[in-house]
Amino acid sequence: MISRIDATEKAKDLIDKLAKQHGDLMFYQAGGCCEGTQPQCFKKDEYYLRYKDVCIGTINGYEFWVDKDLFEYWKHAHFEIDVSDAIGAGGFSLEVPLGKTFKINYRIFSPDELENLKPLKFNL
Questions:
Q1: Count of CB atoms situated within 10 Å of the CB of 24
Q2: The pLDDT of residue 87
Q3: pTM of the model
Q4: At 121, is the secondary structure helix, strand, or coil?
């Protein structure tokens, strides 16, 4: 089965560092402006999901949730979480105090990949 989300080694290393510092994590990608334009990392259960938000998979064992409306737009795309060595638009994500910002690289799935995607999880 094809994963909808992966991470660069740089992102995985940062996630491990954040988990050692904060414990279990979760990610959320919103569809709005400002903070919603980049993935946010929170302590697990410290962000309240909206009805029908979508978990597209896990990174290092931590769930990556996407706003239901944003998912509709990007449902044909693979997400790759990466890191920039700069502070992005927001300040609520756990990596910001380290001078880092998570970002997403997208690519469109091939027709064969679309037929073999891992199942989704919905917040109901």
A1: 12
A2: 82
A3: 0.93
A4: strand
